[in-house]
Specification:
The chain contains 14 helices and 17 strands. It has about 450 residues and is an alpha/beta fold.
């Protein structure tokens, strides 16, 4: 039920309209004197205003102008009542905000119908405005939530691959204003910048995460590695979440990018510590065994020799006791540097603990090749070391076993290299011994 205000200087017209409005289920109020209309509207605004065009004191056109000029009154729908047929007058009223016209003499069915249409239109407008306000409140809340997050977030349309939403972090990472991002195609804007998206077309895009998400209708996660503007490594984790329509088809895709560079670097550091000696940064015993296992597998596959070498610094305890552990640590670090310089990139030098070192030489042609490397190591270690300002001489003993001559199992080869090491110590130290002595006589 609506409340309708009728403004007319003709009492009979008001009486007729009041009867028709009441029969239609609405309440009616009336005003015979037009000068009081604005005050009436401000104190008690109706749902609909029926306004006569021709009135003696203030005409309807003038009143309509005042209503239209007041922001808090202009939303009231106004139906003009007139006996005039001047089209310019009618056009002027519509331009001032009138929603309809009713001609005198009043035809009941026409009046009731036009009232119903005006009220329904007003209700629809209010509903649309309420929905718009709710959407705006929802969007404001969504924007506030998205912009408070520390991850880069965007929403991409499935059909066009256009970016429809982007939060603050996303814009900051691209270093672009919002109008340069929203409405752009994702593969054109982001290729080689944030995501591994290579476009929407072409076979090269078969693994694009957006396409995978679209086709599966399920969320996906990938990790990406790139470099930032300063050339530093950057690791990110990209999550995609499909937004489905009423038919369960992917309509849009939410992309969330999380920077995992710090956690990845921490993970890499922990991984390095797990498999490397913290003092020399050489592979530790566990990684040495893994490298030797791989070298033996490759040797079996390609019919190649593998050399296992064990080192022991002569009289290392005496250096620790006389110069201190700091000097001992420095010596171990410099020994590691010199040993690495004596082998190829494909070979492995490891620290097993204390003053014990080891090496794995791959793709060995014969024993003489290993003998040359061993002598190179002894010569390198024989140069003076400067430890905390002290110049000292250090010697080493080396024991060597060869695959497949001395065995084909890892533990057996390590054990035989260890026995050869003790033979070198018994021989006076600062020398190399092979488990098979005749190897020393091979080659030049």
């Amino acid at each position: 039920m609506a409340r309708i205000l009728v403004v007319d200087d003709d009492g009979q017209t008001i009486e007729q309209i009041a009867r028709l409005v009441a029969n239609a289920g609405h309440t009616v109020d009336f005003l015979l004197e037009s000068p009081y209309l604005i005050a009436k509207l401000e104190t008690s605004p109706p749902n609909l205003l029926l306004l006569d065009v021709n009135m003696p004191e203030i005409d309807g056109i003038t009143l309509l102008k005042k209503i239209h000029a007041a922001p808090h009154l202009k939303e009231i729908p106004v139906i003009m009542i007139t006996g005039e047929t001047d089209e310019s007058l009618i056009q002027a009223c519509f331009q001032l905000g009138a929603v309809d016209f009713v001609n005198k003499p009043i035809r009941p069915l026409e009046l009731v119908s036009r009232i119903r249409i005006a009220l329904e239109t007003r209700a629809h407008i209010h509903a649309i405005q309420a929905q718009k306000n709710a959407l705006q409140r929802g969007k404001s809340l969504t924007d506030a939530i998205l912009n408070s997050m520390q991850e880069a977030i965007c929403v991409i349309e499935r059909e066009t691959h256009l970016i429809r939403e982007a939060n603050r972090v996303f814009l900051e990472q691209l270093n672009l204003p919002r109008h340069r991002v929203v409405g752009e195609r994702c593969h054109e804007l982001l290729h080689d910048k944030l995501y591994a998206c290579q476009g929407c077309e072409g076979p090269e895009n078969s693994q694009c995460i957006l396409r995978v998400t679209t086709e599966s209708g399920e969320s996906h996660t990938i990790c990406l590695s790139s470099r930032d503007a300063e050339g530093q490594p950057r690791h990110t984790q990209l999550f995609t979440l499909p937004i489905l329509d009423a038919t369960a088809r992917t309509e849009r895709i939410v992309c969330l990018e999380r920077d995992i560079t710090q956690s990845r670097e921490t993970e890499n550091r922990l991984m390095h510590l797990a498999f490397h000696d913290p003092l020399t940064h050489l592979p530790n015993r566990q990684l040495f065994h893994d490298r030797l296992h791989q070298a033996l597998a490759q040797g079996r596959r390609h019919g190649q020799m593998v050399a296992v070498m064990l080192f022991d610094l002569d009289h290392f305890k005496h250096i620790n006791d006389t110069l201190g552990h700091a000097a001992g640590d420095q010596l171990l670090q410099e020994v590691a540097t010199r040993l690495r310089a004596c082998v190829r990139e494909s070979d492995t030098v490891a620290r097993l603990g204390g003053d014990e070192f080891s090496a794995v030489l791959t793709n060995v042609t014969d024993g003489s090749q290993v003998r040359k490397v061993a002598k190179k190591m002894l010569k390198s270690l024989g140069r003076k070391f400067t430890l905390l300002g002290n110049k000292i001489n250090v010697t080493s003993s080396i024991g060597v076993s060869l695959y497949p001559r001395d065995g084909d199992e890892m533990d057996d080869l390590i054990d035989k290299a260890d026995k050869a090491l003790y033979q070198a110590k018994d021989a006076g130290r600062d020398t190399v011994r092979f488990f098979s002595p005749w190897v020393m006589e091979e080659g030049p």
